[in-house]
Write a structure and sequence with these properties.
Structural class: mainly alpha
Largest sheet: 2 strands, antiparallel
Helix content: over 70%
Strand content: under 5%
Order of helices and strands: EEHHHHHHHHHHHHHH
Strand order of the largest sheet: 1-2
Number of helices: 14
Shape: globular
Length: about 300
């Protein structure tokens, strides 16, 4: 059977075809992506000091698209026409859906709150992986997945300073967009390097990014300082590009549903970054929940996923 016919085959970022690695390798690589993603909400909070949600959404995508396009040209990659529809769909969900909804949410909720609410992302990712990702998680996997999501939600409800609001609705939409997009891009990363998947997704949606940036320029830029510019650069080159290189690679070699559980830890990465950048408080209870979630992810890695 050829690599193109084998649904379990993947490609190393160097371009060398390989078989899926041990799930532990996928978890480790995926966690690098999670660490990069973990600073997204705090960076968005800072970027909002000088840019509107619409400009952040389109501007970060436009900057990342320019870098991605240049990389594809240098590497002399040909556009995969057979995956055009999937790349465009993943691009809309991950490049506009998640950033757009989360930027609106950050106007009304703290970054740490957003990180906690998005703790349901792994469970949603596993659900989409089962629905159209070709994976069949076993009962034990679902049990660990639900346990992890429950821990994160209990933690969310335990904070006296956290109250449900309209921001949570936008965060839910962001989680829905991201989880669906992860599954689509994770499937594509089984056939080509993760960096190429996100690069083509950025390039194919670039006309929308550039048009949106131009349209929101006049009303979306309000005397940004160095911090806002730095945050926008991070959102463009880190959250929108570099993070997906590791994340897609991890999903491809470790399994979408299984590696998706690593994102349970993203809430606590976000909390840590929020404390460093925004002065938000880290309590012993938060650390305790972070350790408990880490144990759940570690136990869940051994659960069967067909």
């Amino acid at each position: 059977m050829s690599k193109a016919q084998d649904p379990t085959a993947t490609i190393h970022p160097t371009g060398r075809p390989v078989r899926p690695a041990h799930p532990l390798a996928g978890l480790a690589i995926g966690f690098v992506g999670v660490v990069i993603f973990g600073a997204t909400l705090p960076a968005t909070h800072i970027a909002l000091e000088g840019f509107s949600p619409a400009f952040i959404t389109f501007g970060r995508a436009a900057i990342a698209a320019l870098v991605a396009g240049a990389t594809l040209l240098i590497m002399r990659k040909r556009f995969p026409r057979q995956h055009a529809a999937s790349l465009f769909t993943a691009g809309v969900l991950l490049i506009y859906g998640f950033p757009g909804f989360s930027s609106v949410a950050m106007q009304t909720v703290p970054a740490s709150h957003g990180g906690v609410v998005l703790g349901v992302l792994p469970l949603m990712t596993a659900t989409f992986a089962a629905l159209f990702g070709g994976e069949r998680p076993g009962l034990a996997f679902w049990a660990w997945s639900v346990a992890g999501a429950a821990l994160v939600m209990i933690f969310s409800l335990s904070g006296a300073d956290i109250e449900p609001g309209i921001g949570d609705l936008w965060l839910a939409c962001a989680a829905l967009s991201a989880s669906c997009g992860y599954v689509i891009s994770g499937k594509l990363a089984r056939t080509r390097p993760g960096w190429e998947v996100i690069s083509w997704a950025l390039v194919i949606t670039a006309p929308l990014s550039l048009a949106g940036t131009a349209y929101s320029w006049e009303s979306g830029v309000s005397d940004p300082g160095a911090a806002a510019f730095t945050a926008l650069a991070y959102l463009s080159l880190g959250s929108m590009f570099a993070g997906f290189i590791f994340w897609n690679w991890g999903l491809a070699i470790g399994g979408i549903a299984r590696v998706g559980q690593v994102q349970l830890l993203q809430s606590f990465v976000t909390l840590g970054v929020s404390a460093l950048l925004l002065g938000e408080t880290i309590t012993p209870v938060m650390l305790g929940f972070a350790i408990a979630v880490g144990v759940v992810v570690w136990c869940g890695r051994k659960a069967k996923v067909g």
